[in-house]
Please model this.
Amino acid sequence: ILIYRAEGVPVGADQVPHIELTREIARRFNHFYGETFPEPKQILMPVAKIPGTDGRKMSKSYNNAVYLSEPLKDVEMKILTMKTDTRRMRRKDPGEPEDCPVFDLHRVYSSEEERSEIVQGCRTAGIGCIDCKKILLAHLIPHLEEHQRRREEVRVENVVEVLREGSRKAAEVAERTMEVVRQRVRLVEIWT
Model:
């Protein structure tokens, strides 16, 4: 983070402590050697942690992930069987969207207007959990279809070239940063 002089870093909620540690290192270095590094800020998405199908953080190790490349029928089955608000034992029971992992996915894929309708419907038992999941799928499936279509269009050679070019640019930035760091800590004097 520091070597590329990042001012903002997109992270999930579980990575915020890493950004704070990086900020502390930047503050300490700047205090001792002069203003060198910006103190990076975390950039959180509206949903800082994407829930898995069991309500915990989505993770391969928990075996609760929805994969971008998996068959859409499998995604549909995972979403339809996904854990919801535990207070809704029956369709007529009111729920609380803030406690429902499916609603967290609505924050990513559904419009604000639809989320408002879902909140109202859930809290009054006007809609059931399956209805809520089907609304989510109406947004999620087209998104995944587009991703999978675009993925098939990408040629490996193009990806490798983009990675090489990005690596070259990153190395240039890192070398410029290290030149400044060596000057600030007076390593240039030692090496010459």
